[in-house]
Amino acid sequence: MRVLAVNLKPGQVAPMHSHPDSISYYLTDGKLKITLPDGKAMERTPKAGTAGWSDAVTHEAQNIGANDFQSVQIELKPPAPHVVPTR
Question: Positive or negative CA dihedral for 79, 52, 33, 37?
């Protein structure tokens, strides 16, 4: 896994980027505009103290709220191949 601290000030944009499957834990309430590579945009309003699952995604995120937004994102990496020892 990889653990990320996400901090976005009001109006700040995290440019287009990708994540594998992940879980986010929201430290603050937020108001986010999420834009996908095809230009489709949606608004999200995560609540402090809650968590959410996300399938792998490529997106841009913008804090459209009036306050700083903070979360912890836990990206899941694929399991390492199992190697059977030889004798």
Answer: positive
Residues near 78 by Cβ (< 8 Å), separated by ≥ 6? 20
Q: Is the pLDDT of residue 79 over 90?
A: no
Superfamily of domain 2-75: Jelly Rolls (2.60.120.10)
Quick one: three-class SS letters along 22-59? EEEEECCCCCEEEECCCCCEEEECCCCCCEEEECCEEE
What is the pTM for the complete model shown?
A: 0.86
Nearest Cα neighbor of 20 from 57, 51, 53 is 57
